[in-house]
Design goal:
With 240 residues, this protein is an alpha/beta fold. The chain contains eight helices and twelve strands.
């Protein structure tokens, strides 16, 4: 990893303190920025503070297992997840992981294999959104980690679907995201979903975040292709 590159942020969740410490140290040695959590509750608290670029979650944990945690995370944001699992790939339970995980690694794992899978998932992500707020202009800040926007100083709540679509747009700030991609992000598990779902949601989002929804400054339609999220005349910034 290049020394001038921004370190990818990983949240590691496992109830085994020995594995947690060892794996966190290995990842840090390879240039990743790592935060840890020993259970699902602690992991969700960390998400409130800011989003990682990738989560690695142990499948078998007390109180909240990895699958339940992953489902809860996906309700909040479309964050990539790798599951560490003792479940063999041929097990029927592995099908459940397809709902929420980009990949899974069977325990006991070999670190070089896990590292390769992490890098493969991160390469697929493209641009990454900042961990906290996206300031798109003096009157609009997106706080996707808590499913909210601040419009003219007023808090506006976003639905999970609205948040997922904005996350996809924010991850590609200034670039066009196709309607088909947004449809997959928002309604992957909905049968017979069609582009009208995206159109309706984008219209609703404009009502929430734009000063003048009929003449949007931030949520721009690229006719016949998709949508683009832009700053209001200034470059997007991330508050410290």
């Amino acid at each position: 990893m290049a020394s001038d590159a921004v370190a990818p942020r990983i949240l590691l969740v496992d109830d085994d303190p020995n594995l947690l410490i060892l794996l966190a140290d290995q990842l840090r040695d390879d240039g990743f920025e790592v935060a840890t959590a020993r259970d699902g509750t602690e992991a969700l608290r960390r998400l409130e503070a800011g989003w990682p670029d990738l989560l690695i979650i142990d499948m078998m944990m007390p109180r909240m297992d990895g699958l339940s945690l992953a489902r809860e995370i996906k309700e909040r944001a479309d964050l990539p997840i790798i599951v560490l699992s003792a479940i063999d790939a041929g097990d029927s339970k592995a099908d459940l992981l397809d709902e929420v995980a980009e990949d899974y690694v069977t325990k006991p794992y070999h670190y070089p294999e896990l590292r390769a899978r992490i890098n493969r998932v991160l390469r697929r992500l493209g641009d990454r959104v900042p961990r906290k707020s996206l300031v798109l202009g003096p009157d609009l800040t997106l706080e996707l980690h808590r499913r909210a926007a601040v419009v003219g100083g007023t808090d506006v709540q976003l639905t999970p679907t609205e948040s997922r679509l904005l996350y996809s747009l924010a991850a590609n700030i200034g670039q066009t995201v196709t309607t088909e991609t947004l449809l997959a992000r928002g309604w992957a598990e909905t049968e017979d979903a069609d582009p009208s779902y995206v159109w309706v949601t984008m219209r609703r989002l404009r009502q929430k975040i734009e000063r003048d929804p009929n003449h949007p400054a931030h949520l721009i339609t690229v006719r016949g292709v998709g949508y683009r999220l832009v700053g209001g005349g200034s470059e997007m910034t991330e508050p410290t």
